[in-house]
Specification:
Layout: H1 8-11, E1 17-20, E2 31-34, H2 40-43, E3 49-54, E4 66-67, E5 71-72, H3 81-84, E6 92-96, E7 100-105, E8 119-123, E9 136-140, E10 142-143, E11 146-147, E12 152-155, E13 169-174, E14 180-184, E15 189-193
């Protein structure tokens, strides 16, 4: 999905991607959130990770010959070592098979100030991992235009005690009042996340 027609050509080059436009605090480059190749039985539960990264015009990010930079996918034949050598290592891992689909940068003032400029990520959840991953919304802090620090769980509880999905986050957006909206395509619900604090950030 690409939310800016001017970036559509970039989105088409990135398989399983969500591309967001250039933002002033993101060093002038658009950002891409990408799901890794999803064949658990042939690679593993923990690789390759979904990720968030900057989008460089003409940049090569590995598909289909490698993942996470120069990690070669031996299933692909013939190989292209010339391309793999140029593969860009992503900026930030989001966990393997989390199906990170939603991406929204926070510019509002309704949540505490520490969220401003960071990214909310909707993780739809794995479908064939031995231990489910994702099924939540996380926050990724940014500093100087780059992801910085560990992710924070923001919205959880989509799996019941037996591991069955009661909901699956997809799209993430920020409304006009600064709350975070999360589309849930299993619960057929849009969740609205606001601060429990009585004072908004200014």
């Amino acid at each position: 999905m690409c939310c800016d027609d001017a970036l559509r050509h970039l989105a088409l080059k990135h398989q399983h991607s969500t591309v967001v436009p250039r933002r002033p605090w993101l060093d002038g480059e658009p950002r891409d959130q990408k799901r890794g190749r999803d064949v658990v039985g042939q690679i593993g539960d923990d690789v390759p990770p979904d990720y968030m990264t900057h989008v460089r015009e003409g940049g090569f990010y590995g598909w289909p010959y490698s993942y996470w930079g120069q990690h070669v996918d031996d299933r692909i034949q013939p190989q292209r070592p010339d391309l793999v050598a140029k593969a860009i290592v992503p900026d930030y891992g989001l966990g393997a098979h989390t199906a990170s689909l939603g991406l929204a940068f926070y510019t509002g003032t309704a949540l505490p100030a520490r969220y401003r400029g960071g990214a909310f990520v909707g993780q739809h959840g794995s479908w064939n991992r031995s231990v489910p991953s994702g099924y939540k919304v996380i926050f990724v802090p940014f500093k100087n235009g780059r992801p910085d620090g560990m992710p924070e769980d923001v919205l959880t509880g989509f799996l019941d005690k037996d591991g069955n999905a009661q909901g699956r986050p997809v799209g993430v957006a920020v409304d006009s009042r600064g709350a975070v909206l999360v589309a849930d395509d299993v619960g057929n619900t849009v969740w609205r996340v606001t601060s429990s604090s009585t004072t908004a950030s200014r």
